[in-house]
Amino acid sequence: MQLVLLGPPGAGKGTQARMLQTRLGAPQIASGDLLRNAVRSRTALGVEAKRYMDKGALVPDALVLKHIEERLGQPDAAAGFILDGFPRTVEQAETLTAMLKGHDSRQLDKVIAIIVPDEEIVKRISGRRTCKNCGAMYHLIYDPPRNFNLCNSCNGELYQRDDDAEDTVRMRLDVYAAATRPLLEYYGRAGLLSQIDGIGRPEEIQQRIVEAIGDAGGASKAAAKDKPA
Ligand code: AP5
């Protein structure tokens, strides 16, 4: 399945993409994670990207597209993927269509937009904590770790993202409204979009996504299993 998850910052795209990986037999490809890895590795690209990420602004396409194209070309993405955080502009969506066409004439199967009101987003993001070691995600109130500041799975230290300060989150919401929300109309016109309510427990939201994906999810998992490694 070739799926895009859209939604404002903190809507739960990453949470849902991680849960969907096993069900769909397709990897999560998160542009934010790819950029944060580059920042951590202190590549020239990462250093440049950090200047934009810290402000809550979009990173220029030249930096983002290189990572996405490389990642989509890896073997585990050959039979499908769950894109999280990309595309974020109509221009990126058009580039994605061209990129996929160049990879064996592939195309998107579905775009799911997770809709969550701004005030809930600020609450979700301010409580988010991520494991430095394995990337597992927690929320101080909605999904707290068993031991304060330590990951349940690997005991790694939990941290708060640099761009999760309230002012930066508000800037990210403005950027979403101006640059990314137009994608709802764009993918709606293409007949690919389902909008789902992002309020509820993660498992309930997962169920709404699975229903919106419908038969395409099951069929593409079977195709992924049949594909030679
Ligand atoms: P990115 O990392 O993509 O951030 P984002 O889109 O702002 O999304 P988040 O990761 O903040 O939230 P999410 O929707 O994944 O929610 P999550 O599941 O974590 O991008 C960061 C920056 O990188 C951008 O600002 C930009 O600078 C740059 N960038 C990235 N992609 C780019 C691109 N394509 N072009 C240009 N620049 C780009 O959940 C949030 C919290 O809520 C967690 O604590 C979670 O536990 C909790 N939670 C999740 N679901 C629920 C629920 N149902 N109920 C209660 N709590 C929940």
What does this structure look like?
The protein has helices spanning 13-24, 31-40, 44-53, 61-72, 90-102, 118-126, 166-180, 182-189, 202-213, 215-226, and strands spanning 2-6, 28-30, 81-84, 110-115, 128-131, 137-139, 158-159, 193-197. 34% of the residues are buried. Strands 2-3-1-4-8 form a 5-stranded parallel beta sheet, with helices on both faces. Strands 6-5-7 form a 3-stranded antiparallel beta sheet. 49% of the residues lie in helices and 14% in strands. The chain starts with a strand and ends with a helix. It is built from 10 helices and 8 strands. It has 229 residues and is α/β, with parallel strands linked by helices. It binds BIS(adenosine)-5'-pentaphosphate. Residues 7, 9-15, 31-32, 35, 52-53, 56-59, 64, 85-86, 88, 92, 124-125, 127-128, 137, 139, 142-143, 163, 172, 200-202, 205 line the site of BIS(adenosine)-5'-pentaphosphate (AP5).
Compute the number of helices: 10
Shape: globular
Radius of gyration: 17 Å
Largest sheet: 5 strands, parallel
Beginning-to-end CA distance, first to last residue: 17 Å
Quaternary status of these chains? Answer: single chain
**Mean pLDDT across residues:** 92
Helix content: 40-55%
| Strand order in the largest sheet | 2-3-1-4-8
Quick one: how many beta strands? Answer: 8
Low-confidence stretches: none
Structural class: alpha/beta
